[in-house]
Design a protein that fits this description.
Blueprint (H helix, E strand, L loop, with lengths): L26 H20 L3 H17 L4 E5 L2 E6 L2 E8 L3 E5 L3 H6 L1 H4 L3 E3 L2 E5 L6 H19 L1
Antiparallel strand pairs: 1-2, 2-3, 3-4, 4-6, 5-6
């Protein structure tokens, strides 16, 4: 056996059955990641002007209502939600609009009558900051995303 200072995973006899305990992600690290995401989301919201913050909080609540099993996360400098470890949606406030993504072309086409008054682009829908966010539409779009992700897994 090699000297302890040069140990490698290949030398571990338990690798055929289970990985060594030091390679397994611990429950504590998972909790820590969740806490970090929460801190990042809070910091993101704190950085917004009050009107944008209020509207984005309402969007966040609509997402939670549509996907109660989703877990909040923070990536690409935006808050979002994951479902079973996969990204469900991101949401953000910009200078002139709120954004929700990824909303696929198929979902946008299915909701064309409700989304026609909003600016859309590949995978994104934008709601103007000058109006209250359309929470029922957000809920429907998020439910469609949940259905897409569920279908991918089956």
């Amino acid at each position: 056996m090699a000297d302890p200072g040069t140990w490698s995973y290949r030398q571990c006899r338990c690798r055929q059955t289970t990985p060594p305990i030091h390679l397994i992600e611990t429950v504590a690290s998972v909790i820590q990641k969740g806490a970090q995401a929460g801190q990042q989301v809070r910091a993101y919201f704190a950085s917004l002007p009050p009107d944008a913050r209020r509207g984005l909080r309402r969007i966040r609540e609509a997402i939670r209502a549509a996907a109660p099993g989703a877990v909040e996360h923070f990536s690409y400098r935006m808050p979002g939600f994951t479902l079973d470890g996969r990204t469900l949606v991101w949401y953000a406030a910009w200078k002139k609009h709120y954004s929700l993504y990824p909303i696929g072309a198929k979902t946008l086409r299915a909701s064309a009558t409700e989304t026609e008054r909003y600016e859309t682009s590949k995978g994104t829908i934008r709601f103007p900051l000058t109006e209250p966010p359309p929470l029922e539409l957000v809920r429907r779009l998020v439910k469609a995303r949940v259905a897409e992700e569920t279908k991918k897994r089956t």
